[in-house]
Specification:
Strand order of the largest sheet: 1-2-5-4-3
Distance between the termini: 38 Å
Helix content: 55-70%
Mean pLDDT: 87
Order of helices and strands: HHHHHHEHEHEHEEHHEEHHHHHHHH
Structural class: alpha+beta
Largest sheet: 5 strands, mixed
Number of helices: 19
Number of strands: 7
Low-confidence stretches: 1-6
């Protein structure tokens, strides 16, 4: 993979870890057991803000709380506050999530958990180890209006029009999420995002077959009545999230997500096949290469070789980082790149939506 694509994955200025810290974090975060770690780098206090910013505090705390070296240096004590705050928020969000799932079930709207809400229950021992700032829920487009009304009934305020009637549904044709913010005491300021696509880029909204996502959904044992996409889809979703929407604002917890999904074992043939059909080979190749380099994630070389064939794909390269929120003028770039990638029929539909 060319360095021009790997470069944006480096942590932003002010959050860089020294080589010693990065090597130690790789061992600490990817270890599947509680085996002793080498001595912690001496400058842990200087690295603490970066650890918190990359959302690694709760995970490192549970990994190190029985480590005498961490206790002796004060490192574990410094992580305890971050863990306790995360555990309290996880408890609060768990209760609200159950209310949301019950409301959607009452409205007969199917729902899958996405991102941290799913990963904290599928790839981590506890949701408290995987901090989340909001709740991401996947619903079918046909159930969006009912889901939005259910959120309003729970005291959420929509950040967009209610998708009602042809005009309302048309407004969301090439949008991929509807946000809602809690306004009651029980959910105040909680952000919930209803998704009906895995990515907000129009090119992928037309290309990704969502029926494949719903067909292979599986239950989450730790949360009755909850479901999530299967690990192969969650992995590709995580890669797309990194490469398309956060290529210049990497958080290491997102690489840990990939690592945790991979280590129990994956159907790599399915991962490669989906990545090829969905146009996500480049996103997957770059994300998995960085996880392998930084966390020693066991990605088979033939898999990386198969995915790396997308380096010359013009459309996939054009989509790289197109959803990055920090880049100025992204709406114009997105429209231009989407227009170039679409065929004639798609362009007519897209032009109508833009108008």
């Amino acid at each position: 993979m060319s360095s021009d694509l790997l470069e944006p994955f480096r942590p932003p200025d002010g959050l860089n870890f020294s080589p010693a810290w990065l090597a130690w974090l790789g061992d600490a975060l990817s270890a599947a057991d509680a085996s002793p770690l080498p001595m912690h780098p001496a400058d842990w206090a200087e690295a603490l803000p970066a650890i918190v910013a990359h959302r690694l505090g709760p995970l490192l705390y549970t990994r190190l709380r029985a480590d005498p070296t961490a206790a002796a240096t004060g490192f574990i004590e410094a992580l305890a506050g971050d863990f306790q705050a995360g555990a309290l928020r996880a408890f609060y969000m768990e209760a609200e999530l159950q209310r949301l799932l019950a409301a959607l079930a009452g409205a007969a709207v199917p729902c899958l958990l996405l991102k941290g809400a799913a990963l904290g229950r599928l790839a981590y021992p506890s949701p408290a180890e995987r901090p989340v700032s909001d709740l991401d829920l996947l619903v079918p487009p046909t159930g969006l209006a009912q889901a939005a009304r259910a959120l309003v009934d729970l005291g959420f305020q929509l950040r967009g029009p209610l998708p009602h009637g042809p005009v309302g549904r048309g407004f969301y044709r090439y949008r991929a999420e509807l946000a809602a913010v809690g306004r009651r005491d029980g959910n105040r300021d909680l952000l919930v995002e209803l998704h009906w696509s895995l990515t907000e880029l129009p090119y992928y909204m037309d290309r990704i077959d969502m029926s494949e996502v719903w067909k292979h959904a599986r239950p989450l044992p730790a949360l009755p009545a909850a479901q999530a996409p299967d690990p192969a889809v969650l992995l590709l979703h995580g890669c797309a999230h990194l490469a398309l929407h956060h290529s210049r604002s990497l958080r290491l917890i997102w690489l840990v997500d990939l690592d945790r999904l991979i280590r129990p074992g994956l159907d790599w043939d399915r991962v490669v096949a989906l990545a090829e059909r969905w146009g996500l080979r480049l996103a997957a190749a770059a994300s998995l290469s960085v996880a392998a380099r930084w966390l020693a994630t066991p990605v088979p070389a033939p898999v990386l070789g198969a995915l790396a064939g997308a380096r010359g794909d013009r459309a996939e390269r054009a989509m790289w980082g197109l959803g990055d929120e920090a880049l100025p003028g992204r709406w114009w770039r997105r429209a231009w790149a989407t227009w170039a990638a679409f065929d004639a029929r798609q362009r007519i539909r897209y032009a109508g939506w833009l108008g």
